Amino acid sequence: MKFISSVIIAALFVFAANFAYSQALNLNPNSININAQSDFGVNCVGGQIHDDGVPENGYGWNASAGDPSAFAQKFIPTLYPYKFSKFCINLTRTSAGVSTFTFKIVQWKCVNGMPTDIMDSTTVTATGIPVYPAFAFYDFVLPTTWANVTTAGDSVFLGIRYNPVTMSAVYVGSDETSTTPLWPGWATTAAGPWQAPAALWPSYRALLFRAEGGSAVQYAHDYGVTNFLSLPTNPLIKNTPYNIKARVQNFGTSAESNVPISFFVNGTQVGSSVNLSLPVGGVDSVSFPWTPTTTGVKNLMVVSQLGTDLLRANDTIRTTMNVVAGAQVTIFCDPLTTLGNWTLTSTGAVPWALQTAAYTNMVMPTNAVLPWMACNVDAAGSGSNSNAVATLTTGINCSGKDGVFLEFDQDFYVLSGDQAIIDYSTNGGSSWINIATWTASHRTEHATIPMPAATNMTNVKLRFSCIQPGYDWWWALDNICVKGYPADGISSPVTTPVAYALSQNFPNPFNPTTQIKYSIRTNGLVTIKVYDILGKEVTTLVNEVKNAGTHIIDFNGANLSSGTYIYKMESNGFTDVKRMILIK
User: Fold this and answer.
1) Residue 351 burial (CB < 10 Å; 0-12/13-18/19+)?
2) Considering the domain boundaries, does residue 491 fall inside one?
3) Who has greater pLDDT, 221 or 32?
4) What is the pLDDT of residue 499?
5) Fewer Cβ close by (within 10 Å): the C or N end of the chain?
């Protein structure tokens, strides 16, 4: 298989990831607003989405990969029998490539978590593909004869097959944001076999493939809410008016009159229902004004309430929004004109230093202004397998702040074995929480990374560590800032817990993601496992030594069926069990 050079090429296609703090915290398909080429749902957000909306990289094959080569991503029907009706793909190209890309959209059977037999395919062409660093979404209507997914519980893979010999300069958008839940995908050359993208591109989280569909059976009465057309930027601000807009469609064979469409927040209806009449196949939208009066995570639902509806599975859409007390504030910001705020240590590696001139091929975001802080192997002429660490000397006071996040400009260029590691501490450096470990390049990037445990803490520190065995490698940083939002109802700092505790997941019920918070009194091994209602183990969320304190873990149930699940925590003799409900 000749795909090695394609990995190197893909690693070059990294562009600025400028997304909001809330998108990193709330990876909900319906809460992401992006630009679209056409009408895939609306703004390419009407279907199943497993990315955060921002392609950090582009994956492709060199001509030597052979014809056909392919990319595939897992999709799970929401009901059975199911027919996918639209497919969306994110693309970019090199300046040497042509702007027209012809390929096959393919649906594969899923067996043992891998693509196997082809169920269906169709040939399509995308035109006007932009030159990197620009990316664009393209959507395609699948044939009405597209193969159904008939067996309850079955999943499929959707993706593309193409000829890299003639299309080697086209790349598929990929999500490499560390906070995006890892989603099953596969890649293959003509010689095969299928390989997990993370084996080729270590920072892979999801491909920017999207799909939508619905019941393969048409009912006499079937009124559905398909997706959010518009949502306010997350997080929302308390006592500020917003508008929630959703798309409604009559999927049935009968015209319907005055069907109530209602809006709910945390299970309580807000305002009056909107009565909507639609002919067969008709599509319309509804809008609901909403002014949140309390802070916290809010579960939003728009529900179609046709009394004679014969298919309830498409009656409801959900998303999660976070409400904060006030506008974003800057807690700490260092433009790095000097390194006076940092303690620099080195165990054999080239140390961090103030860089007054950009090195050859080093490209920082436009917000970055020399000088900046850099860990630059090339400056010393050789590599090292040891660490160079920059630690914030004085703690940051995040008292009275919620939704705290780290923001900075960077250019991270990787050779084999290089790593960039970011940690933060909530107790002045006694223990550290890792929020990023990168082994793939992050070129010319304005990054934001959530720091959830920093809420209301008074002695928060940052630490940037680089491991640099590769020659001609660097990591440059500028404008390191910590930002957040005014907290509401917090009167005292959070301290190390005096007891072990396992909290109820929130939100609950959830779809498909939820958070589980737990606390341990002393450092020690923590295991948290999830079981189905019959006691069969589903997954292990935590199995490692943790520092004393309060921790939060995300759980994604996208590949599970609706139902009740049990999660169990064990640590230093402490055991607790709680239930959570997944509703799709």
Assistant:
1) middle
2) no
3) 221
4) 67
5) N
- What is the per-residue pLDDT across 66-114, written as a single tens digit (0 to 9) for each? 999 999 999 998 788 999 988 999 999 988 888 999 999 999 999 989 9
State the pLDDT at residue 208. Answer: 94
Q: Write down the mean pLDDT value for the chain.
A: 83
- Strand extents, DSSP E, 325-440: 329-334, 342-346, 352-355, 372-376, 387-392, 401-413, 419-425, 433-438
Is 496 within the bounds of a domain?
Answer: no
Q: Please tell me whether residues 409 and 471 are part of one structural domain.
A: yes
**Pick from 281-295, 338-352, 369-383: least confident:** 369-383
Q: State the burial class of residue 533 (Cβ atoms within 10 Å of its Cβ: 0-12, 13-18, 19+).
A: exposed
- pLDDT at residue 33, as a whole number: 26
Give the C-alpha separation, 115 to 186, whole Å: 8
SS3 per residue for 326-357: CCCEEEEEECCCCCCCEEEEECCCCCEEEECC
What is d(CA 105, CA 96) in angstroms, rounded to the nearest whole number? 24
In the beta sheet, which residues pair with residue 319?
300
Residues 246 and 342 in one domain: no
Specify the residue for token string 């029998």: 81
Nearest to 297 by CA among 514, 35, 149, 125: 514
Q: What is the dihedral of CA 359, 365, 371, 374, to 10 degrees?
A: -60
Q: Is the pLDDT of residue 3 over 80?
A: no
| CATH code for the domain of 73 | 2.60.120
Number of domains in the chain: 4
433 shares its domain with 336:
yes
Enclosing H/E stretch for 197: helix 197-200
Parent domain of 521: 501-582
Q: Looking at 214, 249, 279, which one is the last position of a domain?
A: 214
pTM as predicted? 0.57
